[in-house]
Amino acid sequence: MKEIISTDRGPKAIGPYSQAVRANGFIFTAGQIALDPATAQIIQGDVARQSARVLDNLKAIVEAAGSSLDKVVKTTVYLKDMNDFAAMNEVYARYFSANPPARSTVEAARLPRDVRVEIDLIALA
Questions:
Q1: Residue of 88, 116, 121, 125 whose CA lies nearest to 103
Q2: How far apart are CA 44 and CA 35, in angstroms?
Q3: pLDDT given at position 103
Q4: How far apart are CA 4 and CA 51, in angstroms?
Q5: Considering only CA atoms, which of 9, 2, 117, 122 is closest in space to residue 63?
Q6: CB 81 within 8 A of CB 116
Q7: Given this model, what pLDDT does residue 14 score?
Q8: Strands 117-124 and 72-79, how do they pair?
Q9: What is the mean pLDDT of the chain?
Q10: What is the Cα 65 distance to its own chain's centre?
Q11: Are 117 and 50 contacting, i.e. CB atoms less than 8 angstroms apart?
Q12: pLDDT for 70 beyond 90
């Protein structure tokens, strides 16, 4: 059985997908970009600013699902430019300071709306 998760505290889906799905004790989020949930506009700025917005969006979504960032087991980070890794990582470390989840980080040729970073995650429900 799966349950669709949706919250106004995270950006509305901009396509035929759900913000997150809870299934078999896990929460799977869609990839989040630096969309401000209040305005549906991209947060402009460097990768650090965009990473903070993305992680705030993910936090809101997992909390709406009854979980938390402390229960995240895996993330995938997509960067427009791998040269942004250190700046993204510095922000990321503030959100996952103790017992960080497993992570993959890849450079993507192009991300939605030409953002600098996109992140998705899997958390325990």
A1: 121
A2: 9
A3: 98
A4: 25
A5: 9
A6: yes
A7: 82
A8: antiparallel
A9: 97
A10: 14
A11: yes
A12: yes
User: 5 - beta bridge partners?
Assistant: 20
In the chain, what is the straight-line distance between the N-terminal and C-terminal CA atoms, in Å?
A: 14
Question: What's the Cα-to-Cα distance from 64 to each of 7, 28, 83, 125, rounded to whole Å?
Answer: 6, 13, 33, 11
Distance CA(113)–CA(72), nearest Å, equals 26
- 16: which 2 tokens? 């035929």
Query: How distant, in Å, are the alpha carbons of 31, 35, 45, 82, 84 from that of 78?
Result: 9, 15, 17, 9, 11
Average pLDDT over residues 37-66: 97
Q: What is the C-alpha to C-alpha distance for residues 63 and 117, in angstroms, rounded to an integer?
A: 21
Only one residue has tokens 């040269």, namely 83
Question: Do the Cβ atoms of 106 and 78 come closer than 8 Å?
Answer: yes
Give the residue carrying structure tokens 């959100």.
95
Backbone angles phi, psi at 51, to 5 degrees: -60, -40
pTM for this model (two decimals): 0.96
pLDDT digits (tens, 9 = 90+) for 7-47: 999 999 888 999 999 999 999 999 999 999 999 999 999 99
